[in-house]
Design brief:
429 residues; alpha/beta; UDP-n-acetylglucosamine1-carboxyvinyl-transferase, Chain; 2 domains; four-stranded mixed sheet; 14 helices; binds ligand EPZ
């Protein structure tokens, strides 16, 4: 299994181009099931997760063609016919977002059998809100032997659905099902993340009628059919925030291109409070740090536009060497501090109690072998390693490959000493 080896201490200077958002791309790919015409997605990230979903979509009847288009990496998805409405356990288990094929399959064919995704490293992550939304739209749902059996033989019907709390996946799932339902659907308490706006824009380009994305109430007027379209995947806000934090950790000056500063405003405010220099530009942003020690800053994760849970681990890495004590509160997932023992191996001083971590900044981290546990936790170890003395080796890099495209290339282009060690033996335990 591959490892990433990082020798800390180098400043980062240069440009980092940001890829299309993983968490948009995978939902947009599932939207392609809603039409028998081709959907062309441009600005596509090339990631393990998008490849993996492509594999599932092919089984359902899609032709998935990746190429280098006139506007960069693109994927064309074309499902003339759904040949199977069955998403098996082995595929859904490996990537939870595969569960979101349920709504499109149901909307297009009137039936689907999709495995329940199960829990994952960061928490139990139930899908009750997804299923309630589909039931409200008239689907008959049975759970049996770990599978969701969904039926809507006479099609789905618009409804008013009120979410008790914000869920990105459930909002997207309800949208994907409601666009082909008869009549109007109103989603109250909808998630407001940029991925929802991206999905709504793509669905509208396909002929859907979705209004209000980005706010907490969405109105969807169902249409009889959707068509093909071309849609550019929005920039990855988590990748943007991750490299902003990497630049702040290592020091230097990094320009993040092909992205938007407004997508990570809640992070940028906290970085400025810590003493990082942030320049917001039309075509991205510039992050500068001249070497002065940063201040400890407290954060709490929240649904968008609050501080993203997907940036919590990376921010904590920055705080490990800040001046003073910072408190990091995680409010979205119950088990999202798995990076803490690994950061501690690098010399960080962190005490976790419930959903709160107290981080006392130390003068310096020390390189060590560490283990990636999930996607965002693993990149927090890379950030910490950039400022650690000596070499850090991150094991289980497949977590990183799920969501960060050419990470070592992008960092080393700015002067970081990062290399991939191919096929290294996995440490025991
Ligand atoms: C999405 O997950 C992202 N994943 C996550 O990113 C991200 O952390 C999360 O949104 C929050 O921003 C993808 O987009 C593929 P939720 P999702 O439904 O949709 C609870 C990454 O690293 N909940 O907004 O699954 C849930 O357990 C990943 O890229 C229910 O109780 O998140 C959580 O506590 C990790 N019942 C909260 O809601 C439900 O039916 C918010 O989850 C659904 C969710």
């Amino acid at each position: 299994m591959d490892q990433i080896a990082i020798t800390g201490g180098a400043h980062l200077v240069g440009d980092i181009p940001i890829s299309g958002a993983k968490n948009s791309a995978i939902k947009l790919m599932t939207a392609s099931l809603l039409t028998d015409e081709p959907l062309r997605l441009t600005n596509m990230p090339r990631l393990a997760d998008t490849r993996f979903l492509g594999k599932l979509l092919r089984r359902l009847g899609a032709e998935v063609t990746e190429s280098e288009g006139p506007d960069g990496p693109q994927t064309v998805l074309h499902t003339p016919e759904i040949v199977s409405a069955f998403a098996p356990y082995d595929l859904v288990r490996q990537m939870r977002a595969s569960f979101n094929v349920l709504g499109p399959l149901l909307a297009r064919t009137g039936h689907a059998k999709v495995s329940l995704p199960g829990g994952c490293a960061i928490g139990a992550r139930p899908v009750d809100l997804h299923l309630k939304a589909l039931e409200a739209l008239g689907a008959h749902i049975d759970l049996n032997e770990g599978y969701v059996y969904a039926q809507a033989p006479r099609g789905l019907k618009g409804a008013t659905i009120e979410f008790p709390f914000s869920s990105v996946g459930a909002t997207e799932h309800a949208m994907l099902a409601a666009v082909l339902a008869r009549g109007e659907t109103v989603l109250i308490g909808a998630a407001r993340e940029p991925e929802i706006v991206d999905l709504a824009d793509c669905l509208n380009a396909m002929g859907a009628k979705v209004e209000g994305a980005g706010g907490s109430t969405l109105r969807i007027v169902g249409v009889a059919r959707l068509t093909g379209a071309t849609h550019a995947v929005a920039p990855d806000r988590i990748e943007t925030g991750t490299y902003a934090l990497a630049a702040a950790m290592a020091g230097g000056e990094v320009r993040l291109t092909n992205t938007r500063a407004d997508l990570i405003e809640s992070l940028l405010v906290k970085m400025e409070e810590a003493g990082v220099d942030v320049e917001r530009r039309n075509d991205g942003l510039i992050i500068r740090r001249n070497g002065a020690r940063l201040n400890a800053v407290t954060i709490e994760t929240d649904p968008y536009p609050g501080f993203a849970t997907d940036l919590q681990a990376q921010f904590m890495a920055l705080m490990t060497v800040a001046d003073g004590e910072s408190v990091v509160r995680e409010t979205i997932f119950e088990n999202r501090f798995m990076h803490v023992p690994e950061l501690s191996r690098l010399g960080a001083d962190i005490v976790v109690s419930g959903g709160e971590a107290r981080v006392r900044g130390v003068d310096c981290l020390q390189g060590a072998p560490v283990m990636a546990t999930d996607l965002r936790a693993s990149v927090s170890l890379v950030i910490a390693a950039l400022a650690a003395k000596g070499e850090t080796v991150v094991n289980r890099v497949y977590h990183l490959d799920r969501g960060f495209e050419r990470l070592e290339e992008k960092l080393s282009a700015c002067g970081a000493q990062v290399r991939r060690v191919k096929g290294a033996a996995e440490p025991e335990g």
